[in-house]
Design a protein that fits this description.
globular
Length: 483
């Protein structure tokens, strides 16, 4: 269970494939922008996509305005549609993903208990929610998702997450009895090909030309500006972003301003299972996460894609990435956000790349490959499904059913309150518009006045508008009437 469109979420898809490879049947429940439930197959996994309620809420003015959006409303109405689909699947185990998916997992667990089914629940924590920063959505979602973690994180039978540091932080923060099992965001080793298409050929660069590669989504929090500026300082170095989007275009313009337009390249995304094979002909992989809470615990998948491509790395000194480089010696780190430090690290890796590359051995790749993570997931499923579970007591069923009643009542109450707020805001706007329209209409319809009369009337109405906090709108109206 995950609150996204599933396509492109390699971690969720590979987790479901792990279940299929172990002989289980598996279905992913996700989200669609369509108005009805969609059933499909993505990378060999059956999916059920439940309509996103944001469109319906948006028509009522309850979504699409970040300062007023309420994630609890969105998830409440999504869960109402998703739970019947989950119950129809009659699962033996449920596995929820990411910070929003925790709410879906809790709702599914209670619904199953209320129907007399006590089945195991696994939850996978993708982010350090307390350390999220950046866009407005993160700021809006953060307090709500932290509340869900405080309420629900002790309920799953097993927790998994993406790094050892995040696991330890979660134990301390929520007093967990057991640390989450770490399953790394790593490539499938068996998917690597040394004969397929590669980035150097795609860019038509000769083999002796030094080439640094950045893969994945490009954002300011990933230090892309530092990377571009640093590469501009390294003579002869070419840089390619295997990425796409508006921000990549901004980096292209930045590279031109830095005088490296002929050395900066872009290439669209390639399928996740082909990334390491595609970038294998570069000289180094680079990543520049800046310092903030979630970044400190991150072990991004691009790190491991570089590893499986035999590329030495240049990484910023956020905690988990620096610890990885310090332990295995497969590259160099630089002070996050420091262009000179980054350029120096690039020069170090280029001058010693064969030495760094020699430390990327088969054993290291085996430890950090998806095949090993798949074994961990299968072990979790096998263990939980072998546990004997007693019949659900009547008291537990009643408690779970009451939880659902309370959730539904809370949702209905929140919906009514937020809708009333929207209606009040609309009414205020209408009243403001009417206050502007009446004097303007009077001015427009009045008999021709002398210049002195006109000036006096406009001044009177302007004072009224000023008192109502409508001066700016009134001036726009005056301009439309009198030019």
């Amino acid at each position: 269970m995950v609150y996204n469109r599933v396509a492109g979420d390699s971690r969720v898809i590979k987790t479901a494939q792990a279940a299929l490879n172990a002989g289980y049947s598996a279905t992913i429940v996700g989200v669609t922008s369509a108005t009805s439930v969609e059933r499909a197959e993505i990378e060999g996994v059956p999916v059920v996509l439940v309509p996103n309620p944001s469109g319906s809420l948006g028509k009522l003015g309850l979504w699409g305005h970040e300062q007023h959006d309420d994630l609890r409303l969105l998830m409440g109405f999504y869960v109402r549609r998703a739970i019947p689909e989950i119950l129809d699947l009659n699962p033996d185990i449920i596995h929820s993903h990411d910070m929003i998916g925790l709410k879906i997992g809790a709702a599914a667990k209670h619904a199953l208990l209320a129907s007399g089914h006590d089945i195991p629940w696994v939850h996978d924590l993708h982010e350090f929610v307390a350390g999220l920063e950046g866009n407005a959505r993160s700021v809006t979602y953060k307090p709500i998702c932290l509340g869900w973690e405080r309420e629900y994180l002790i309920l799953p039978d097993k927790l998994t997450t993406v790094s050892d540091l995040l696991a330890s932080k979660l134990v301390r923060r929520y007093c967990l009895k057991e640390a989450p099992q770490v399953t790394y965001n790593v490539p499938v080793a068996g998917a690597f090909s040394s004969t397929g298409r590669d980035v150097r050929s795609a860019l038509d660069l000769p083999s002796g030309t030094p080439l640094a590669v950045f893969v994945g989504g490009a954002t300011p929090l990933r230090g892309c500006d530092t990377i571009v500026d640093a590469c501009a300082q390294v003579e002869g170095l070419h840089l390619v972003f295997v990425s796409q989007g508006k921000y990549v275009e901004e980096m292209k313009s930045r590279a031109q301003r830095m005088g490296m337009s002929g050395r900066f390249h872009t290439h669209p995304y390639v399928p996740s299972d082909q990334v390491s094979s595609f970038i294998r002909s570069a000289d180094l992989g680079i990543h520049g996460l800046v310092h903030y809470g979630n970044a400190q615990v991150a072990l991004p998948n691009k790190m491991f894609e570089y590893l499986h491509a035999d590329l030495p790395m240049v990484l910023s000194d956020v905690e988990s990435m620096k610890a990885f480089i310090d332990e295995y010696g497969v590259g160099a780190t630089f002070e996050a956000g420091n262009v000179t430090s980054c350029a120096d690290a690039i020069r170090t890796v280029l001058s010693k790349r064969e030495s760094f590359r020699s430390r990327i051995d088969a054993g290291l790749k085996l430890r950090y490959c998806w095949e090993r993570q798949e074994e961990k997931i299968q072990e979790i499923y096998d263990h939980l499904l072998k546990e004997r579970r007693d019949e659900v007591a009547v008291e537990r069923r009643k408690a779970a059913a009451q939880w659902e009643v309370n959730e539904s009542a809370s949702l209905d109450s929140a919906f009514s309150c937020r809708l009333a707020e929207v209606m009040r805001r609309a009414q205020i706007q209408q009243e403001k518009a009417a206050k502007i329209a009446r004097p303007l209409q009077a001015l427009n319809n009045a008999a021709p006045m002398s210049k002195t009369q006109t000036k006096s009337s406009v001044g009177t109405f302007m004072n009224i508008a000023k008192n109502e906090g409508l001066l700016h709108a009134f001036r726009r109206g005056i301009t439309r009437v009198f030019g």
